Amino acid sequence: MLELQVNGKAYRVDVDPTTPLLWVLRDGLDLIGTKFGCGVGACGACTVLMDGQAMRSCVVPVSAVAGKAVTTIEGLSNDGSHPVQQAWLAESVPQCGYCQSGMMLAAVALLKHKPQPTDADIDTAMTNICRCGTYNRIRRAIHAAARRNLYV
What is the pTM of this model? Predict the structure, then answer.
């Protein structure tokens, strides 16, 4: 039995400790906002925050997050009011939307680390893949959230 802290709530899960966090979130806790993309940590669709740092949940065993605070897209806000979510909408970032939960969490981690990122900072930090190619809109949304100074 493992104890997890996800989106501010405590959970006890009875799973193999090597199970990827992604599957515990989706199948065990029914937090389906975190998406499965590649399964090898390359695309970023499964990005969540662990103690504020972006991580690819498809390659992290659930045992590695015991005692850490995990945040999924559902944990940013229950009504879409988080400044990064608002900036995403204002800049019309999503097209298909599949990668967006991971993108937004990667952006939150970037802004916590670099409150006023440059384009180069954004390009370096945002390694998630968007098949729709909305990278310019993503960059604009991150700058918009940074200008609001409310993203933390």
Answer: 0.94
